[in-house]
From TrEMBL:
Keywords: Coenzyme A biosynthesis. Belongs to the HFCD (homooligomeric flavin containing Cys decarboxylase) superfamily. InterPro entries: Flavin_trans-like (IPR036551), Flavoprotein (IPR003382). GO terms for molecular function: FMN binding; phosphopantothenoylcysteine decarboxylase activity. Residues 41-213 form the Flavoprotein domain. It comes from the Eukaryota. It comes from Paramicrosporidium saccamoebae. SUPFAM superfamilies: Homo-oligomeric flavin-containing Cys decarboxylases, HFCD. This is Phosphopantothenoylcysteine decarboxylase. One of its GO terms (biological process) is coenzyme A biosynthetic process. GO terms for cellular component: phosphopantothenoylcysteine decarboxylase complex.
Length: 217
């Protein structure tokens, strides 16, 4: 089994609810800490935008801002292009879903486990899939089966030409109507060298949205 993402798993076939993210590096000092009674369970879907490199920073800030939080990360194959240098713990991939399957009737633990689904970043390709109900990888399968009585937060990230495309406007409206919370991107210098709208929302804003969702539960 070959993973392009950083993947550290001492057990060849652990139960999926034992995957805990443990980030390295100093956490940012939070301006506030949300204290929760029970452990908040956040599932982060990472898709194929260069903004995936913000994953470690996002996890550090989330752990620093919430008193009790358990985080799992699931990534698309394209997201893995940006993740090899990160050391943010195990990342669930398509291969793991097949490897952990035992028989018909197995529980869908990554869906049942989570209280909140955060898609950060949400690339243009996955946005289009979500708007049309396509589920051809582990991330989009999780989204397709998500219980929309629980929060789902999406953080689009793409180049300016994609962001300004009329299809993007239509697809985002579809997601809002389904119950997604959309954190719009920011205008800044993009990786392509252009200055424009399309960079993923700041990790501070993303953590704030997650903590707000935790507080409402």
């Amino acid at each position: 089994m070959v993973h392009n993402c950083k993947y550290e798993n001492p057990d060849a076939s652990p139960p999926i609810n034992n995957y805990n993210i443990s980030c390295s590096g100093p956490a940012s000092t939070p301006q506030f800490i949300v204290t929760v009674g029970a452990m908040a369970k956040v599932l982060i879907g990472v898709t194929g935008s260069v903004a995936s490199i913000k994953l470690s920073e996002l996890l550090d800030k989330l752990h620093a801002s919430v008193s009790k939080v358990d985080v799992k990360v699931v990534a698309t194959k394209n997201a893995c292009h940006f993740l090899p240098a990160l050391t943010c713990g195990p990342v669930l991939l398509d291969e793991d879903e097949w490897r952990l399957w035992r028989s018909r009737g197995d529980p869908v633990l990554h869906i049942e486990w989570a209280d909140i689904l955060l898609i950060a970043p949400l690339d243009a390709n996955t946005l289009a899939k979500c708007a049309n109900g396509i589920c051809d990888n582990l991330v989009t399968n999780v989204i397709r089966a998500w219980d929309f009585s629980k929060p789902i937060i999406a953080c689009p990230a793409m180049n300016t030409a994609m962001w300004d495309n009329p299809l993007t406007v239509t697809q985002l409206e579809t997601l809002r109507n389904l119950g997604y919370t959309i954190l719009p991107p920011q205008e800044k210098l993009l990786v392509c060298g252009d200055v424009g709208m399309g960079a993923m929302a700041s990790t501070d804003d993303i953590v704030s949205a997650v903590t707000d969702a935790i507080g409402r539960q």
